[in-house]
Amino acid sequence: MISRLKKLFAPKPAADWLTIDELRTQLTGDAPPLILDVRSKEEFGFHGHIPGAVLLPEGDLPQRAAEIPAGRTVVCVCRTDRRSERAAQWLLSQGYDTVMVLEGGMMAWKNAGLPLEHHPLK
What we know:
This protein is an alpha/beta fold. It has helices at residues 2-9, 20-27, 41-46, 61-64, 82-93, 105-111, and strands at residues 16-18, 34-37, 54-55, 74-77, 99-102.
């Protein structure tokens, strides 16, 4: 009983936050992070996404987490940063080591005039 209570009230894992400039620097480095777009399929395709991003909607994470390579830095992104923060916290709670959230999400990326890819998905 006590161990269940400790687990219930244990602090939630906190993801690091990354600015657009920090992400751009990491993307040009020797070991670029995996950009994990946790928006819906429609948002990803219609509104555009960061070049090279992988779509894995937030609601699909529990079933598809095995698709995320272990040991690789993951940057979660959504429209603003709310869903990506929840996704990052969940990934951290599942044992992923380096998970970050893009501050401001795709809205900040677009507002900065950075490139987008558009792939309508079926």
